[in-house]
Design brief:
Layout: H1 3-6, H2 10-15, H3 17-23, H4 26-31, H5 34-39, E1 48-52, H6 60-67, E2 72-76, H7 80-92, E3 98-101, E4 115-121, H8 131-141, E5 142-151, H9 159-165, E6 169-175, E7 178-183
Parallel strand pairs: 1-2, 1-4, 2-3, 4-5
Antiparallel strand pairs: 5-7, 6-7
Bound molecules: S-adenosylmethionine (SAM).
Residues 3, 23, 52-55, 58-59, 76-79, 82, 104-106, 121-123, 126, 128-129 line the site of S-adenosylmethionine.
């Protein structure tokens, strides 16, 4: 069963409720303000940004503010309750540049070469987001000059090296704890992350 089907399970949504409360806690916001971390992603006004696994929207509103009303933020979250919470926050903030999709990031259904910047913030390593499937999908949806911004917490677990080894992205920078990668043409057309 894929993440999209699992995300509709009432039991799973119930089990993830406490995690959602932790994700949006004041302590977390105080310890690691989302605006500060997002600065490492190099978001610019007017960009089309994809946020993978938005959870309850800890980074969503700040990212939407950074790209401004001419930008477009697509937040993907398979857990129905989390996605509903993000939608609620977006409405309450009066933001009109955010689209929340209850989907699996491994198969986004988004157009190829449509995204300027894809955010993987606090989502990998995660069992339902294997890099050998996630990276090719991010590579597909990113524009030729697009970038991938990765914030890893609590552990990097060899992820930056694995991203480089895929041959789909090259290293760009590390700022505010965020690794930024540039999309490159895949030599063999597929990621190999063993
Ligand atoms: C640890 S939480 C982080 C949430 C948010 N980025 C944050 O930092 O507060 C990981 C999120 O990834 C989502 N997720 C898991 N598998 C996914 C998939 N295949 N596609 C998209 N999101 C997924 C989970 O539902 C969860 O909300």
């Amino acid at each position: 069963m894929g993440a999209e089907q699992l995300g509709k399970s009432r039991l799973l949504n119930l089990l993830f409720k406490p995690a959602g409360a932790t994700m949006e806690s004041r302590l977390r916001r105080w310890l690691m303000p989302p605006e500060k971390t997002l600065r490492g992603a190099g978001l610019k006004p007017g960009q089309t940004v994809l946020e993978v696994g938005s959870g309850t929207g800890f980074f969503t509103l700040a990212a939407a503010e950074m790209i401004g009303p001419s930008g477009h933020l697509i937040a993907i979250e398979p857990l129905a309750d989390y996605a509903a919470r993000v939608t609620q926050k977006v409405r309450a903030a009066g933001l009109t540049n955010v689209e929340v999709l209850c989907r699996d990031a491994l198969d986004t259904g988004l157009d190829a070469a449509s995204i300027d910047n894809a955010l993987l913030f606090g989502v990998i390593p995660f069992p339902s987001l294997p890099l050998d499937r996630l990276l090719p999908e991010m590579h597909r949806v990113l524009k030729p000059d697009g970038s991938l911004a990765v914030w890893l917490f609590p552990t990097t677990a060899g992820v930056p090296t694995a991203i480089l080894r895929s041959g789909l992205f090259t290293g760009l920078s590390k700022k505010h704890g965020v690794y930024a990668f540039e999309r490159c043409e895949a030599p063999g057309g597929s990621a190999s992350l063993k």
